[in-house]
Design a protein that fits this description.
Blueprint: H1 2-7, E1 25-27, E2 33-35, H2 36-45, H3 68-88, E3 113-115, E4 120-122, H4 124-132, H5 134-137, E5 141-142, E6 162-164, E7 169-171, H6 173-178, E8 185-187, H7 188-242, H8 247-297, H9 301-311, H10 334-351
Antiparallel strand pairs: 1-2, 3-4, 3-5, 6-7, 6-8
Helix pairs in contact: 7-8, 7-9, 8-9
Pfam families: TRIM_CC, zf-B_box, zf-RING_UBOX
GO molecular function: zinc ion binding
Protein name: RING-type domain-containing protein
Length: about 350
């Protein structure tokens, strides 16, 4: 192997389809070599019985036999290449939650694109044929997704690439001929663009609702501030009225303060309940906004359309138009009652120092 390594390079044992070292290499009649699985899939998907390298046509599909010599050499090169790739591509290894490359053997690298024609996800290396080979360039590539089989029509085993507006469902080409012949059918991308616009409007509406509720929170907090100012004024007035009185008057003063503070506490408690409810609604709306934003930015046509109905409307919320905090009224309250009771006492208290001692 060391002597062969001096004369041969890894590129000489690389399949021109998958751009990787041969796996089960076979030789077609024109003399070119390919991975057995690669050339078989190529003939199944593209022009049958034609060499991808020189485009030589074969009258019948050649019988493929593994070239044992090339297979043994390729196995050693593959082992060397995998060790090298493991060191240089450590950051590209697929992590949990990421879509892995379906072609990689051994350590799976992170997929860069998924092919809706091949129903296979490819890493950067294995994607190369789709970017360079004429036949594969026509394939539709999307950002990597799992469950590519779910993008196939379960009835006809064809890609879901159309949308039936009549039945509001994704369909394949055969569906339009057989089951949806007279229906209003448009390309998946066209419906995707329309729904994406609607999602944008929904997101804007949700943001507007969030802003209105934030303004309502400001209004409630301002009402609480005004209520607190009123309470402070009443407390000060009560203190002034009862300062001159002794223990009995001080007890009345304490009762007045406690009564006013209790009203204020009830007002604040009511405001806290309103604010908590509004913040909960904002949290739900923000969650929905995030879901809508993520869905509107998705390039996954099928995923967007399948999730559209559940996310196209804002979640139900309470109508806060008529809701407000009413500061407690102190007119005719306990202060007036105590003033009426204590007025004679205050009058006597003020006049006594000026009474004639001899009267």
């Amino acid at each position: 192997m060391s002597a062969a390594s001096c004369l041969l390079t890894e590129d000489q044992f690389r399949c021109s389809i998958c751009q990787d070292v041969f796996t089960d290499p076979v030789t077609v009649p024109c003399g070119h070599n390919f991975c057995k699985n690669c050339i078989t899939q190529h003939w199944d998907i593209n022009v049958p019985n034609q060499c991808p390298n020189c485009n030589k046509d074969f009258h019948t599909r050649p019988e493929l036999q593994i070239n044992t010599f090339i297979s043994e050499m390729a196995a050693q090169f593959r082992q060397s290449a995998q060790q090298k790739a493991s060191r240089s591509s450590e950051q590209q290894v697929s992590k949990p939650g990421e879509v892995p490359c379906d072609v990689c053997t051994g350590t799976k690298l992170k997929a860069l694109k998924s092919c809706l024609v091949c129903l296979v996800s490819y890493c950067e290396t294995h994607l190369e044929p789709h970017l360079t080979m004429t036949g594969l360039k026509r394939h539709q590539l999307i950002d990597p997704v799992e469950n590519l089989e779910g993008r196939m029509c379960t009835k006809h085993d064809k890609p879901l690439e159309l949308f039936c507006k009549t039945d509001r469902m994704c369909v394949c080409m055969l569906c339009t001929i057989l089951d949806h012949k007279t229906h209003d059918v448009v390309p998946l991308k066209e419906e995707y663009e329309g729904k994406k616009v609607e999602l944008g409007k929904t997101e804007a509406e949700i943001q507007h609702m969030i802003q209105k509720k934030r303004l309502k929170i400001q209004e409630i907090r301002h009402s609480v501030e005004l209520s607190e100012e009123d309470a402070d004024r009443e407390i000060a007035k009560g203190v002034q009225v009862f300062t001159a009185l002794k223990e009995s008057v001080e007890r009345s003063q304490a009762e007045l303060i406690e009564t006013i503070k209790e009203k204020q506490r009830k007002t604040e408690k009511q405001a806290e309940c309103f604010i908590k409810e509004l913040e909960q609604e904002i949290s739900e709306l923000q969650k929905r906004s995030t879901e809508v934003e993520q869905l509107s930015q998705s390039e996954d046509h099928l995923h967007l359309l399948q999730r559209f109905t559940s996310l196209n409307a804002a979640p139900p919320t309470k109508d806060w138009t008529q809701v407000s905090i009413r500061p407690p009224s102190y007119e005719g309250g306990p202060l007036l009652h105590h003033e009426s009771l204590l007025a004679p006492t205050v009058t006597v208290t003020v006049l006594l120092p000026f009474s004639c001692p001899t009267c």
